[in-house]
Amino acid sequence: MTSFSKGEKTKNSIIKRINKLFNEKEMLLTWDEMAIELNLSRSRITNYFPKKELLILAIYYEFEKTLKKFLENHHQNAETNSLEHLKDYYSDVMALLFEYRFSISYVLVNPMNDKELRSHINSTYSANKVRLYERVTKLCQMGILDERLLLDDHFDPFTFQHTNLLTTWVISYRLYDGSQDFSEMKPIYLKGILNCYLPYLTKKGQSQFEGLIF
């Protein structure tokens, strides 16, 4: 069991509370606004985060840490052996993305002079591409997907489409559908992500896809 110092606990509490606040307000608040909303002194917050950029990054890295734990747990406890399992997996990932939607969209849209962050995002993309290839391979072996998808000239554009839909829907939601409840929009986004697989479904895969309820 991990133990944290009082300072670490305070810092983690600020990260979680401000993440929730940014999501609710849908905007980057001033230091004074954050202090009032959290009932903390401004200096208490800036003591841990001298710049707003550092605060946004802290929230984003908290998301990355939470996502890593989710992926490890999913890998250990669940095997993707049907499109129903795949749909449930994406649904859980989307729920996590929604929980950190403001910081994720901010980092993706606003350029940051942080070489370490850019390197981290690039390495994360590479790792996700390997994980996706393994998932596709498994579905091909199960007779759900056509093995053509494993070829580079198919897999590379598929990865581009898949990755963009799975990550940038949070931006689309905030830009276009923010007035709609997430529960109403989630099935639409979820189906859009799974539609990436449509051109490569076998008859078995098509039968499973038609049976999905979004």
From TrEMBL:
InterPro entries recorded: Homeodomain-like_sf, TetR
Protein name from the UniProt record: TetR/AcrR family transcriptional regulator
A Pfam family hit: TetR
Taxonomic path: Bacteria, Pseudomonadati, Bacteroidota, Flavobacteriia, Flavobacteriales
Domain of life, source organism: Bacteria
